Amino acid sequence: MTGLKLYGRDKDDVAIISSYMQDALLRSSDMTRLASPPRFVAMGSRFCWEATDKPQRVRTALQIGNVSAMRTKHIERAKSPQILSLLSLNFDETDAPAGTLTLIFAGGAEISVCVEACEIIMEDVSEAWNVRSRPEHKDVRSRPEHKDVRSRPKHKTE
Questions:
Q1: Taking Cα atoms as reference points, which of 129, 127, 122, 155 lies closest to residue 57?
Q2: How many Cα neighbours within 13 Å face the side chain of 37?
Q3: CA angle, 152 as apex, 147 and 153 as ends, to 5°?
Q4: CA-CA to 139 of 20 to 30 Å: which in 16, 39, 95, 156?
Q5: Quick one: pLDDT at residue 96?
Q6: From residue 103, how far is each of 10, 23, 133 by CA, in Å?
Q7: pLDDT tens digit string along 124-158?
Q8: What is the model's pLDDT at position 103?
């Protein structure tokens, strides 16, 4: 399998990158904000949704440029590293081309990255390896506190 390298400059590009990054596993200790040039970088284990024969994962780098501010929710870097499962990436434009890129993780954790302009790069940095199963998403509509939330598609285990 050839590694992916994707660039994003707007909401539609971020949606495509989000679909490839869905279910990536990231350690909180493998994410940081760098000052010069201002950017947020993270390294994780991305599930290869594009692999059709066997379930696979690949080490993937994610970089967000033009960072002006960053906020986290329910992420504790001071303690032992958390393993976070990425659900989605969203870009909300506030004052074109500025906006906020939000990484949403299972369990309510979030990272909001304020940017002067949307610039995101996702790049696979290793060979893929086989894993035992595909991630599954339970139907959250069955929970009383989530009656109006649409469920994510279920992914069958092979």
A1: 129
A2: 7
A3: 130
A4: 16
A5: 86
A6: 15, 12, 24
A7: 999 999 999 999 877 544 434 433 333 333 433 33
A8: 98
Q: pLDDT value at position 158?
A: 36
Q: Which residue has the tokens 């309510």?
A: 108
Distance CA 33, CA 153 (A): 32
- pLDDT lower than 50: segments of the chain: 140-158
Q: Would you list the domain boundaries of the chain?
A: 5-146
Task: List the structure tokens of 40.
Answer: 């947020």
Nearest to 100 by CA among 59, 67, 77: 67
Token pair listed for 158: 């092979």
Q: How far is CA 103 from the centre of its chain?
A: 6
